[in-house]
Amino acid sequence: MGKTSLPKKSSSSASAHDSIESILAENRRFAPSKQFSSRARIGSMADYEKLYRASIKDPEKFFAKQAEELTWFKPWRKVIQPPAKKGSFEGTQWFVGGKINASYNCIDRHLETARKNKAALIWEGEPAGAFGFEQRTLTYQQLHREVSKCANVLRSLGIKTGDRVAIYMGMTPELAIAVLACARIGAPHTVIFGGFSSEAIRDRVNDCDARLIVTADGGWRRGNIVELKKNVDQALSTESSGTPVSGCPSVEKVLVVKRTAHGVDMVPGRDVWWHDAMADASADCPAVPLDSEHPLYILYTSGTTGKPKGIVHTTAGYLLGTYLTTKYIFDIRDEDIYWCSADIGWVTGHSYILYGPLSCGATVLMYEGAPMFPAPDRFWDIIERHRVSIFYTAPTAIRSFVRAGNEHPEKHDLSSLRLLGTVGEPINPEAWMWYHTLIGKGKCPIVDTWWQTETGAIMISPLPGAVPTRPGSATLPFFGVAPQVVRKDGFLCNPNEGGYLVITKPWPSMLRGIYKDPERFHKQYFSEYPGIYFTGDGARRDKNGYFWIMGRVDDVINVSGHRLGTMEVESALVGNPAVAEAAVVGRPDEIKGSALVAFVTLKQGWPPDEALREKLREHVALAIGSIARPDDIRFTDSLPKTRSGKIMRRLLRELASTGAVKGDTTTLEDFSVLEKLRTAEEE
Ligand code: PRX
Known about the structure:
Layout (H helix, E strand, L loop, with lengths): L7 E2 L10 H8 L6 H4 L7 H13 L1 H9 L4 E3 L3 E4 L11 E4 L2 E2 L1 H5 L12 E11 L2 E8 H17 L8 E4 L4 H13 L3 E3 L6 H11 L3 E5 L2 E3 L2 E3 L1 H9 L2 E2 L2 E2 L8 E5 L13 E3 H7 L9 E2 L3 E7 L7 E6 H15 L7 E4 L6 H13 L3 E5 L10 H9 L3 E4 L1 H10 L2 H4 L8 E5 L5 H11 L6 E4 L33 E4 L4 E2 L6 E5 L9 E2 L3 H9 L6 E9 L5 E6 L3 E4 L2 E4 H9 L4 E11 L3 E10 L7 H14 L8 E4 L13 H10 L13 H11 L1
Parallel strand pairs: 1-26, 6-21, 8-9, 8-10, 10-15, 15-16, 20-21, 20-22, 22-23, 23-24, 34-35
Antiparallel strand pairs: 2-5, 3-4, 5-17, 6-7, 11-12, 13-14, 18-19, 19-28, 25-27, 27-29, 29-30, 31-32, 33-34
This protein binds adenosine-5'-monophosphate-propyl ester.
The site of adenosine-5'-monophosphate-propyl ester has 22 residues, from helix 12, strand 24, strand 29 and strand 30.
């Protein structure tokens, strides 16, 4: 395969991709949306084009001007520091020489303005109390006090700038406080989604050698208690799932928030109650001036190998990326009530519950629990009661709402909404239309935002009011983002030709690496097309320059908007004594986007029955978390392999989706396995 450092143009791809000018000219063919234009920050396509062109032509100048909107302790020397290695932007640094603090930008700077008394966080718990659902509001001043105290608590427990802190909690204000407290003292946080298992906690904590874990006794989900502290205890213990393991030797302290108060074991000398520590803590903790490139956090995400990778984001570029995208894509205003329904355990929560909106001084609604608890209208009820004006959620959630029935949103007053967003997976046009009509009442633009844990911030999305939306398209790139769709050989695709989505220029919030694994970082992102960033997604670009994301092209499956590596689930399966071999593929699912189907061969003597099937599903849930529980387990005598021994996933995918295999099977070693798989299917 002829690889290039920059996409080449195929001879036939002339017109639409020739230059920014021609792309922008194509875009002009769409009339700008009138709905938002009159009061939007970027009110027309011409304004978008002007800024986009400037951002691509002279990114240093463009981003220097934008970065002045953040508060700096010391100005930067250089906006973009290219890597020493020529011909690649891997390792680019931003705002080099500057000193800044993300916590300060999200909180302290607002205290010098009228925002100091405005709500920073409006939190709603899942359970109801005597006066309706539990609620708490923290103004920017109150948030400042809590975060400062928590930062002092972390320090008193031995955490210094640079030490990693793991956070494994439910969606309570203390989670936000802990994250911002880490940022305040420059202790990179690693938030572990509260739905992950103790083994997943252990893997992540050990990979980054976290010295402290912040957790809660439990969390509320669908009326039940999630045993957060118990899972942490199990991760830290030397005995787990019956096999002796090493636990987490780096962890010295565990800080425990009392949320469910259902009684947990506290290990003397190691475990500290949050409320006890906070009671004595001083509220004076100035934010530490940190280098622009100081690591802000590590967030683990699934990749194409069995081991999740620790994506590293640094301070200034990431903060600028989340700040700018929140400001322009959500068009956020002081009077907005902004709600992103993601969990802070995922990147969406990091960027668009915390860093983006808080750096903009917005009022953020945070909800603790499940979308349909205690009734299917919970989300619409929240929007009505809190007068939410901007709502950001995932297509998978929208599809479950469609299934639940129109009567649920219809009984609520949703007139406060002015902008809707989606993220995490391609949205099917039916779900888009439903969202647009039933929730947005036809008046709210929908921003379909494409991005990744690695990109830190939104990369492709309409600017509401300027860029007309299209059901199913993330539309056009954000400022400074240079995406292209290329063929396997690096040539640009023609309009509407499906290919691989790459990013050809550095952007401020790009990941800086995979924690402790520079080789994997290079191989994963900068080697497929040398020197430019490979997203792992397939896409096409239409003749108007709009991007249509077609989903993953690697061994990553998007289940309910969450990324899962097939290898990760496979290694969990082969960790069970009954399993000889496993191959996991995705099949289209009406609600989840993709469902997980595992083809499993068993060791001698294990009966391929329903009980074992259930046991294996449970085994995966215990090893990773319930999001990874396979929807289907199919037993087979052997797996279809090429002559060189590689599992032919393509065939399995086809079989899982359609029940038959029509594709090319000439490299298959043992044709009879297909017959057996088909038979298993029919049974
Ligand atoms: O496949 C794309 C899909 O989600 C992947 C990134 O997953 P993750 O790192 O977990 O981050 C999710 C939240 C940003 C992408 O590679 N994806 C994300 N947003 C969209 C999308 N696919 C289509 N349309 C989107 N708007």
